Amino acid sequence: MPFRIDSLLQGLAIIVLVDVLLLWQMPGILRWHSRAVEILLRLAKVPWELGREMALLPGISAVMLRTVYLDYRAHPLYPAYFAGAALACFCIGYRRWPAPLKPMFFLLLAGLGITLLYLRMVSPTVPYTPEDFCAIWCRGEACLWLLLPPIFAMSFFILNVPLSLKIGWLFLLLLYSFLWSAVRLALALATFHYFGSIWMPFFYFAFGFLTDFLYIVAFYSLAMDGAATFLAKRRELWQ
Amino acid sequence: MLLALELTALASLLVMAVYTLRHLLFALNRLFCPHRMNYTDLAGFHLPSISILLPMHNEEAVAQDVLEALLESDYPHDPGRFEIIPINDHSTDRTGEILDEYAERCPDVKPLHRQGGKRGKAAALKAATSIARGEILILFDADYVPGKSLLKFLAAPFADPEVGAVMGRVVPHNVGSSLLTRLLDLERAGGYQISQQARYDLGLIAQYGGTTGGVRRTALQAAGGWNALSLAEDTDLTLRLAIHGWKIAYVNRAECYEEVPATWEVRRKQIERWAIGHTDCLHRHLGPLLRSPHLSGKAKLDGVLLLCVYLTAPLIVAGSMACMALFVAGRSFLPALTAFFLASTCYNAVGNFASFFEIGSSVILDGAHRRVRLLPLNIGNFVFSTATVSMALAKYYSGRILGRSLPWNKTLRYRNGNGNGNGNSGPGPNGHGNGRGLNIIRAKSVVPKST
Amino acid sequence: MLGYFALLILFLLFFSFSFYFGMREWLRPQDAAPVPVDVEYVRAENYFGVSFRRNMREWLKTARALPPEEPRDGSVRAVLERPNGERILCLAGGCFGGRGEREELIYSERDLCLAEGAVFHKEIYSLGKVETGAGAQLQAVAADGEISLGVDNAVSRWVDARHKILLRRGTVVRSRVSSMESIELERQVSAQSLFAPLIFTADYRPVPSSPASGKPEERPPAELSVQAGEVSPAYLNGIPCSRLAEETWLVRGNLELPAGTCVDTNLVVKGTLCSGPHCCFSADVKAGGIELGPSNRIVGNLVSGSVLEIGQDSLVGESIIAEGDILLRAGVRVGGGGRQAVVSAGRDVRMEANVAVCGKIAAGGMVITI
C-alpha cells in the first residue's frame, strides 16, 4: 500500500516542527527577502528607500520598501492606453488563442477595467501606497510559507517513501518560494514605478496566490513523479 | 454596494472552503480507510438476466466496435438471460443498417429504431426499457468498448437487494490525442479512483454516470423511470434512486474504455450539457433530497454539495470580481479574505473542481507516474470549465425565465472517422464492420506482464 | 528600462518553471498510454496455478541444463538454469527435501512427497500428487494430481490442484487455495481464499436427499408468510417499514422473526435481523447485521453490513456477503445443486465442523476452520 497512516503522522509532526522553525526565523527570512527585492529593484533601476516598520503577523514586523508610482496626474491617459491595448489584444487575438487562455485574458481585462473605473470615478490613485502593497504582499507570502508545510505534508508526506526525499522536496519548495516571492514583488514595484498602479489588482490576483499554487502544484507533481518511480522499483503492492 | 461585494466575497470563500474540505476528506478516506463491501468476489457467480441498452444517434463510426465487444463478452448468452438492445435514435447515417445486419446474424441483438417521438438519450432509454426483459439494465454509450468480463463485474452488486444502480470506472482510451484528452484523463482518474470510491465508502451518494453501469429494473420503476425531459438523465436517476432508498454501488474494478473530447469546442458542448442538466436536477430534487427519510444527514449534505457543484463556477467568477473591486476600494481586511478565497479556489482549481492531490494520488494508485507532471497545466482546463459553466448557467436561467427548452447536443466521435460521425467500415470478426477501432483499443489495452 | 526588461525575463523564467515540466510531458510524452484496462481479461478462479503452469512450461523450454558439478539428491534428474539465474530442479518424483532450505523452483514428473520440516522458497509444480510432511514451509504449490498438506504447514502464497486438496490441522495458506474437484479442511486451518466445486470442513456428512439449494423442506403456517402484494405483513406490524419496490420491503429498525416465518420477498433491514429456527427466505436479504437461527432456508443472497452468523444446519442457496465477520455454524450448506456460490467477508470467515460450500470463500482477513 503506497499510503500509510504512520507517514501521515510523520507529516503532521514535520508540519509542526517546520512551522515553529519558520515562525522563529520569520524576521530573518523577511529581512533576506527584502534584501533580494532591493537588489532586483537596483537591477531594474527603480529608486527605493526604507519605509516604516509594519506588523505582518502577530509579534512579527518588518521594514517595508518605499518606491514611487508613476503619477497618473502627469500622464492621465496611460491607464486608458493600457486598458485599451489589453482590450484590443483580446479582441484581435480572441479567435486565434487556445480556448483555455481566453478566460485568463478576460481576467486581465477585468482587473484593468475595474481599476480604470476606480481611477476615473473615485480617486486618481489606488488606496495603497507602495509600503502598503509591500505589507499586503509580505503578509500574504508569510502566511503562505507557514501553509506550505501543511499543504505538502498532507499531499506528499503521506506516501511511503524515504523521509529524506520528502524533506528534500519541502526544502526546495520553500527556497523557491522565498526567491520567487522576491522576484514577483520586485517586478510588481518596478511595474508600478514605470507604468503606474493600474496594474496593481492584476498583479496581486494573477501573480499572487494563483501563481503560488501553480508552483506548489508543479513541485508536488515532480515530487509525486519521483515517488512513483521509487515505489514502482520497490514493487509495492497496490490496493 | 461595498457590503454586497463583501457578502459575495465571503459567500464564495465559505463555499470554496467547504468544497476544499470535502475533497480533502474524500482523498484521505480513499487512501487510509478500509473499503466497503466488495462485490467483485461475486463476479461470475451472481448472473441475473440483463438487457444491455445502447443509445445511438449517428454512430456508424463506432457501432460495430461496441457490438463486437459485447458479443464477445463471457456473460452467459442464454436467451432468457442476455440481450442487447441498440437504440437507433433518429440516425441519418448507416447506424440503422449496421444494427439490422447484426440482428440478422445474432439473435441476442434486438435493435430498436426510433424515427418519431422526443429525441435524446433519456427518451431513447425510456423506449428501450419498455421492451427490455432483463432484470438488470446495463447501459453503455456507443463509443465504449467493454471488456469480456465487464458485464459480470457490473451484474455482481445486484446480489444486494438494496442496490438500485451500479457504476463502473471509465478510462479514456484516446489519451494521446491532444493536451485536452491528457488533462481529461487526469480528471477522470481523480474523479473515479478517489472521489467516487470515497463517496461509496463513506456511505454518501456515489453518482451513477449513465454509462458503464447498470440499473435494477424494479428500482427504476419505483423511482419513476427515465426522465425524458432531462439533459442529465444519469444525475436525475441517481438522485431519484437515492431519495427512494436505493443504494448506488461503485465498482472500481469494472473498468471500461471511453472516448473523451479531443477538442475544446466539443468539450465546451459537453460541459454545457452537464452543467445545465445537473443544475436542472438541483431544482427538481433539492427539496425531496432534504426530505427523504432514507438518507442520513451526511448523505443529504453531500447530496446538496453534489447538486450545487456547477454553481461554484459563477460563484468563483463573482467572488473574484468582488474581491478585485474590494481590493481596489481599499478594504483593509480584504487581503486576508482574498488570500484565503484564492487559496481554497486554487486548491480545487488545479484538480478542475477537485483537490489537486486527488489527481496526484489517483495517478500513484493507477501505477502511472510521468503524467502527473501535467497537473499544473490543468489550471487551463479549470479556467475554461469555469467560464463555460458560467455561460451555460446564464443561458439556462435566461431560458427558464423566457420559457425556452435547451436542445440535446451529441458529443462528436473521432474513432475511425473525422469527427463528423462519418466512418469507413468494412467486415469485422463477427462479419460486420472492420472493427479497426476495436483492434486499436485492444492493442492499447495490453497489460504489461510483471516479471 | 533595460533593467526592467532584465527583471521581466527573470520573472518569466521563474514563471515558466511552473509549466516547463508539464509542457515537456505534453510535447514529448513519456506516459501518454491509457491506463491499462485488460479488455481480454476473463476471470479464472485458479488463475495463479494456471499462470504458473504456463510459465513453467515456457521456462522448461528455454532454461539451459547445468552440468552435474556437485553431489545431487538421488531424486534430482536434472538442474536447469533460467536466463535470470533462477534454477529449476527437475525431479523424477518420490521423496524430496529434508533439513535445509531450497531456493530453487521444483518440477516433478511424478508423485512427490516432501519431507517433514522441509523449507522451499520457490514454487513447486508436480505432474502427479504432492504430499508434505508436518511443518513444511512452502512458497506455492501446483499439482496436476491431488495435494495433501501435512500438519502445521505454512504456504506463503497459493495452492492449486486439478484434483482434491486436503489441508491438515494447523496449516496456513496466505493466499488462494483452488481445486477443480474439492478442498477438505481440518480444524484450525486458515487460508485467505478458497475455490472449488466443493469445500468442506471436518466431519462433513453429505445430505443425500436435500441439495443445498435453499428450497424449504417444510412450509410454515400460511398466516406467518408474506405474499407479494400485501400492504403490511403480519410480522411487520408496529415496525416502521416501507416498500422499496414491488418485491422489496424495507424495515428501518431491527427485526426479529419468530420461528417458522417464511419471507417471500426481498427484505432490507436497516438494523439487525435475527431469525428463529426453521425460518425461510425465498429471495434476497440484506441487513445491518444478520443472525440466523438453526435450520433456516435462504434461497437468495444474504448481505450483511456488519457481522453475519448462520445457524446450525441452515441452507443458503446463493451467496453470502458481509462487511464484517461471517460465522457458519455446524451443518451449514452454501450453494450446491449445480450452483456455485460465494461466501465473502470483509474480515474473517469462520467455519465449524460439517460445513460445505460449493464455490468460493474469500475473506479480507482469513478463512478459518474452528
Q: What is the secondary structure topology, with strand pairs?
A:
The complex is a heterotrimer of chains A (239), B (451) and C (370).
Chain A: H1 5-43, E1 49-57, E2 60-66, H2 78-93, H3 101-121, H4 130-157, H5 163-195, H6 200-206, H7 209-234
Antiparallel strand pairs in A: 1-2
Chain B: H1 2-32, E1 50-56, H2 63-71, E2 82-89, H3 95-105, E3 112-114, H4 121-131, E4 136-139, E5 145-146, H5 150-155, E6 163-172, H6 179-201, E7 213-216, H7 217-222, H8 233-243, E8 247-258, H9 264-291, H10 297-307, H11 312-328, H12 334-349, H13 356-365, H14 378-402, H15 436-444
Parallel strand pairs in B: 1-2, 1-4, 2-3, 6-8
Antiparallel strand pairs in B: 4-7, 5-8, 6-7
Chain C: H1 2-27, H2 47-62, E1 64-65, E2 76-81, E3 87-91, E4 94-96, E5 101-102, E6 105-108, E7 112-114, E8 119-120, E9 123-126, E10 130-132, E11 137-138, E12 140-143, E13 147-149, E14 154-155, E15 159-161, E16 165-167, E17 172-179, E18 182-185, E19 190-201, E20 225-226, E21 241-245, E22 248-251, E23 255-257, E24 262-263, E25 266-275, E26 280-281, E27 285-291, E28 297-298, E29 302-304, E30 308-310, E31 315-316, E32 320-322, E33 326-328, E34 333-334, E35 341-345, E36 349-351, E37 356-369
Parallel strand pairs in C: 3-6, 4-7, 5-8, 6-9, 7-10, 9-12, 10-13, 11-14, 12-15, 13-16, 14-17, 15-17, 16-18, 17-19, 18-19, 20-24, 22-25, 23-25, 24-26, 25-27, 26-28, 27-29, 27-30, 28-31, 29-32, 30-33, 31-34, 32-35, 33-36, 34-37, 35-37, 36-37
Antiparallel strand pairs in C: 1-2, 2-3, 19-37, 21-22
